[in-house]
Design goal:
alpha/beta, three-stranded parallel β-sheet, 5 strands, globular
């Protein structure tokens, strides 16, 4: 087990800090990818104009493509679980206690990035989809705290139940693959 995960990492952190730690090998390898959410939250926080926000999302999507290629080159015998990005707002566009000054969040940007992740998972050998987005809907801002899968102090981080549900989605993706 190589745990290269880093809380709060962005796609730039993956390339700059995590990917260089992954040695090349022909061994069978399982890699889970959960990146992009922090990139979007950072972009949302600064309230850029629509065209700039969409350009940022395209850059993150393009980085996903490069990341997948780099991982498959380093580990040719790999199964990569691409994980969609959850929406703590439950499609409401607002996350209590998070980015409240940003106004309603542009969920179409999240939708676009998740669509890209799904397309990559469907069209890339050695890649499976872990659709956390779909699984987590209805367990965020739209329900009472007891039914949330997010940490009560920051509704963008999964709580213990949420972490277990991510594990469940990964396990189901492995079972399908």
């Amino acid at each position: 087990l190589y745990n290269l995960a880093e809380d709060g990492a962005t796609i730039g952190d993956v390339f700059g800090e995590q990917l260089p730690q992954l040695s090349e090998s022909d061994e069978r390898t399982l890699i889970t990818i959960t990146v992009g959410g922090n990139d979007l939250l950072s972009a949302f926080e600064h309230k850029p104009r629509r065209s700039l926000l969409e350009a940022i999302a395209r850059d993150v999507a393009e980085a996903y493509d490069f990341l997948l290629d780099a991982l498959r080159r380093a580990r040719p015998n790999v199964l990569i679980l691409l994980t969609t990005i959850y929406d703590p707002s439950d499609r409401l566009g607002r996350i209590p206690g998070v980015l409240e000054d940003a106004g309603k969040l542009p969920l179409h940007v999240l939708d676009g990035l998740n669509a890209h992740i799904r397309t990559l998972a469907r069209g890339t050998p050695g890649v499976a989809l872990a659709d956390v987005y779909e699984h987590f809907l209805g367990h965020g801002a739209s329900v009472t705290e007891v039914d949330q899968w997010y940490w009560r102090r920051s509704l963008v981080e999964p709580n213990a139940q949420g972490a277990s549900e991510i594990r469940r989605v990964w396990r189901e993706a492995l079972d399908r693959g």
